[in-house]
Amino acid sequence: MSCSICSLPSNNSFHRQGSEASSRPSQKSLPSPANNVSWAMPLRRRRVGLLPTMTNVSFDASSVNVSASDGNVGGSRELYDCDIHLASQRMDSFLKATLDMLGDDQNTQNTVCKSCLDRISSALDTHSEMLLDECAAYDEAAASEEERVSSVRRALSSVVKMNSNNNIYEEIELNALSSACNEQEQELRILQNLMYDQMCRSKAISDEEERVFHALNALEIDARNFVEESHLVTNMYHSVSEEVEAISHVKLMSVPFNVVISQDTGRYPTINNLRLAYRVNEKASLSYDEVIAAWVQAAQLVAFTCGLHPGFVSPHLRIIPLSHPCAKIVATFADGQSVHNLGWDVVSGADRSKHIDPPSILCFLALLSQLAEHIVNATKSDPPPFSMTLISIDSVDHGRQLCIASQ
């Protein structure tokens, strides 16, 4: 009976791989009638005596790397797991294919020659050796990893011990720093409180300074006003002093008052040759100036007489003889104060009246009557040559004349 494997077509991959296997004794192939794929499996052995060396150690256990050694494809643990898993899968596929082939041969009464069986056995041995090599390499890598893990643990324990010793000193330093920070915070709060107090004081001082500046400004304004008023008062004082000085040089005792009254001839009464009248008479050439001058002389006579009798003080009237342009009488009553002119206050002008105001003459006569009464009561001398009343002298009624003049 012919072999079922040898009877396969010549273009089958088994024959092609078998020829390649005969030319390359280091490789063994296994046909797969079930799936018609190549069973050629190169033998990959690992050098058992070479262990991987640790090059990089990380504290992360998931990234512990192993350097590649001679005969290894890579340098990580996953490589061994992948090689063992791949070899196991291939071994299972070979066994399953062999069992399926042998089972099919028993069912179909097919025979397999001894050379094919040797080849299948050789392929199975090859994969078994590869699994053993992979397992040995994995065991070596696992032992190396265990040593590496133990060394890492020792290193970590030493580092932890050193860190624990350092932590004690660091804790002491941290406590010292914490206490120093607390002290600095307390000092900072104290300084902030002091700064706030200083700011409040500075604001109060600024407000007080502003008030002082306002007061100083007001004081400067008052001082300037005082200087101006003082200057005015000084000028007034100088003018009054000059007037007093001028008056002091006047000798009243040497000033004659020649009073002439002529009732029979109808002439004007005169004082120092000045006609004393209460109105201007152009026909008699009686001008404003002469009337004003006569009343000034009369006022001086009354003032001189008052000076000779210091005990006389009029309760309501005060005469001012030396004033410009005419003499004046100041009357002070309960309803107020008034000034009466013994003449005209306006020197020139067409609007002034031709006669003196009657109230001014009445005030002059009242003052003259009070003075005469005081002199009579004080001296008890001979009676005056003419009978006198408040409004008349002898037979001359001044009140009636004033009423006529006012009309």
Describe this structure in words.
- One of its GO terms (cellular component) is phosphatidylinositol 3-kinase complex, class III, type I.
- It holds the Pfam family APG6.
- InterPro entries: Atg6/Beclin, Atg6/Beclin_C_sf, Atg6_BARA.
- The protein is mainly alpha-helical and 407 residues long.
- It folds into two domains: 13-169; 254-406, Actin-binding Protein, T-fimbrin, domain 1 (Orthogonal Bundle).
- Helices cover 57% and strands 8% of the residues.
- It has helices spanning 13-23, 77-108, 114-248, 288-308, 358-379, 398-406; strands spanning 27-28, 41-42, 259-260, 270-271, 274-275, 317-320, 327-333, 336-342, 392-393, 396-397.
- A three-stranded antiparallel beta sheet has the order 3-4-5, covered by helices on one side.
- The longest helix is centred in the middle third of the chain and has 135 residues, at 114-248.
- The protein starts with 12 loop residues before the first helix and ends with a helix.
- The model is unreliable at 10-81 (pLDDT under 50).
List the helices and strands and how they pair.
Blueprint: H1 13-23, E1 27-28, E2 41-42, H2 77-108, H3 114-248, E3 259-260, E4 270-271, E5 274-275, H4 288-308, E6 317-320, E7 327-333, E8 336-342, H5 358-379, E9 392-393, E10 396-397, H6 398-406
Antiparallel strand pairs: 1-2, 3-4, 4-5, 6-7, 7-8, 9-10
